[in-house]
Amino acid sequence: MKDKTTAGLLAICLGGFGAHRFYLNQPGIGLVYLIFCLSLIPSLIGLIEGIQYLVMSQHDFDVRFNRAPGAQGDVAAELGRLHALRKEGALTDAEYTAQKLRLLGQVPGGKGGPRRVFAWILLGFSVIGAGVELDHFFTGQGQNRGTGIAMIVLFGIGAAALFRSAAGRPGQAAPAGPGSLEVREAERAILQAARKLGGKVTITDVAAESTLSFSEAKVALEQLAKAGACETLITDDGLIVYDFVELSRRKQVEAG
Length: 256
Prior knowledge:
About 70% of the residues lie in helices and about 5% in strands. The chain is mainly α.
């Protein structure tokens, strides 16, 4: 079991040599710190990481660094179980993706960690570029300003790209875009159910008349209501009804 206070103090005091990374059983990342230790960038990164460890909750620290040795195998077995459930139709693609991301986010040594390390290194070089620019400004060496600006722009863009790449959080799947296939299929299923039932449907109606789960039907109906495609009505007994006015009127005309 790794202690977060020890990791934090090692990162703050000896972070420039990657001591905290070696302590957390991440020798590869620790070696990167050691290689760049003379640039002082790892020391800056270690200071930031040390503060993060100290303010991090014990639960979050344990999830990242105190997983059992067999955790990788457990995750692989769980992924296999989720895949089987998806093939059986017990899980939708969206649910499968969300749970897979949650599991992969708990695997030690995930791809996000090294990316953040290199992002901090690039950011450090960008900060050095800013220092070079300030030095040129105060010493009046305006003719050499291109070097610092180039370092700020190039390393800053690289760091931003790596941070963005590693920014995904466990359990959070990327929301489907408004024109995605899943959204269109959900809307089509809801409209078919509404047309069949006279233009007014509940969440349960949609779930019963389509392949959508109850939660999927709820989310899709709420999105349609926000977009103005239907009106939300609440009956005297508290039942929420979604009224597709155009389909309701058409049904009344056909009945008349």
